[in-house]
Amino acid sequence: MDQRETAKHVLEKAFRAIEEGGKKHGDASNSFQMIGEMWGMYLSHSLTARGTNELKILPHDVAAMMSLLKIARALYSYEFDNYVDEAGYAALHCMLNPTTTHTEEK
């Protein structure tokens, strides 16, 4: 396969993925609007909580924001995997957050 055929193949697969994603997850515009609003709010509060104006996205921020993405997807379309993924991202958020301490419940 030459370079142009490779590029065409990638674009065809991307087009099919967009079509299938729309069927599976609903309208991308609504979903991405909500995700953007949730991420913006998260980042704004993160800066406030850290007492800084420097926008630095840390690994645990990525996990939290991916969890928010799954919450938004679950709102616009029911897919069981959204909830499984959300739980996984929540666990990663806890694991990657340097301020997390584990205490045994009594």
Task: Describe this protein's structure.
With 106 residues, this protein is an all-alpha fold. The chain has a domain of 71 residues. The chain contains 4 helices and no strands. Helix 2 packs antiparallel against helix 3 and helix 3 runs antiparallel to helix 4. It is extended.
Supply database-style keywords:
mainly alpha, 106 residues
> Based on CA inertia axes, which overall geometry fits?
extended
The percent of residues in helical segments reads over 70%
Largest sheet: none
Q: Number of helical runs?
A: 4
Secondary-structure class: mainly alpha
Brief account:
The chain is mainly α and 106 residues long. The protein is 76% helix and 0% strand. It has 4 helices and no strands.
Layout of secondary structure:
Elements: H1 3-25, H2 28-50, H3 59-76, H4 80-96
